[in-house]
Design brief:
The protein is α+β, with helices and mostly antiparallel strands and 184 residues long. The protein has one domain: H-NOX domain (Alpha-Beta Complex), CATH 3.90.1520. The protein contains 5 helices and 7 strands. The protein has a 4-stranded antiparallel sheet with strand order 4-5-7-6, covered by helices on one side. The chain has a 3-stranded antiparallel sheet with strand order 2-1-3. Helix 1 packs antiparallel against helix 3. It is globular.
Length: 184
Amino acid sequence: MTKNSNGLVQNKVVTALLQAYLDILDYDGMKSILKEAGELDLKDRRDTNPEEYINLTPFQNILSAQDVLLFNSFQLLFTIGKKFSFYLFPFGKNFQESIKEITELIRTDWNVTILQKTSDQINLEIENCLFCSQIDNSCDLFIGFIVHTLEKTLSAAEKVEYEITKKADNRFFLTLTIKKKNKL
């Protein structure tokens, strides 16, 4: 099921993703993904050292199983990504720190780069995205993660809109635009 098993992932990343599944899909949904991935032993990871790194293969197996079971569930994957951001970075980090840290927590040949940042727009390049599916599913989970990571740094009166451009071979550009919410 894995794409490229070279690399490491910190336990807290796996735990945050499993917690996001638990919140959005409930226990049975999380368990179904783990069963499809052949990683049922990971369902009780709370007792592990969150700072310890493990082989990337189980994490990639989970993502592959998720892509199969949630195929074409774009909004659901986006929502799981937002929860994943909440559990991985629950407290006051700025956006740049969070983007740098996610690439350090998952050590493989992928890269997330902030190309340009203004007060109302951020342009990113994502290369070798391990969240992009090998079955041509979208990167909605990771996009939800990025959008919510930025939203957490904004005021309640602001929202984030996004646009994906030049998507090919697990590489894409993402433009995040900060806008004022419409008042009711």
